[in-house]
Amino acid sequence: MATAKQELGELGELLVVQNCPCPKCKQKKTLKRLATNFKCADVICDFCGYLAQVKASTSKDGKTPPKRLLGAAWGPQRQRMNAGIYFPLFLVLVTPKQDRFSIYYLSADLQSEDLFEERTPLSVSAKRAGWQGFHYDLEAAANRLIFVSEGVIAGKRASRPSPEEDEADLLYPEREG
Asked: Where is 81: in which H helix or E strand?
C-alpha cells in the first residue's frame, strides 16, 4: 500500500502529464509517466524523448513553494552534477485538501549546484542505514521557477491507472488568460 507521500507524488505526475506540453517539442499530451523508481526522471515525452523530474508538495494556498523540498538519492544526483547533467524539474503544489494545484517548471539550464543540498546519511539504526539523499533549495531557485498551470482537482483514483487508461476524467484544470 502506498504512503501519503507516494500518493502525492503520483498525483503530481498525473497533473503534469495532463496539464503540461513537452517543454522541448511543445507537443501536447505527449508526456508519459515512467516506471516507479526510474533514476532521476519521472516523465518522458513519447514524441521527442525529453525527460524530466516531478516533485510534489503540499502548500497552504497551492501556489507558494516551500523553501526546501526533499529530493532523492544523493549519489546519482552528485554523479550527474559532476558530469554537468541536470534534469528539468516540474514542481507541483497541491492544497492540503488536494482540491487545487499549481505547476511550476525549472529548466535544466537554469540549475546549478547551489540548488542541491546534501543531506546527512541515515543513522546505523535506520531501516536504510547509510542512505543519503538531498534537498532542493527552492529559495535559491525562486526567481528561476516558471509558472505553467493551475487548476482544480476534480477527483482522484485509489490506484495507479494503466498507461492506456484515459486520465482526462480525473483532472479538470482551470487555465487563466
From this structure: helix 74-82
Cβ atoms of 135 and 117 closer than 8 Å = yes
Number of compact structural domains in the chain: 1
E strand spans, the chain: 31-33, 43-45, 51-58, 68-73, 89-94, 100-106, 116-118, 133-137, 146-153, 171-172
Cα–Cα nearest to 88, from 65, 105, 72: 105
DSSP state, 61?
A: T
In a domain, 60, yes or no: yes
Do residues 77 and 86 touch, judged by C-beta distance below 8 A? no
CA distances from 125 to 17, 18, 64, 74, 120 (A): 38, 41, 35, 20, 14
Cβ(167)–Cβ(146) below 8 Å: no
| pLDDT mean for each 10 residues of the chain (177 residues) | 93 97 97 90 97 97 95 93 95 96 97 95 94 95 95 65 44 42
Beta bridge partners of 151: 101
Q: Count the residues in the chain.
A: 177
Domain annotation covers residue 177: no
Name the residue range of residue 67's domain: 4-172
- Listed residue (94, 89, 108) closest to 65, CA to CA: 94
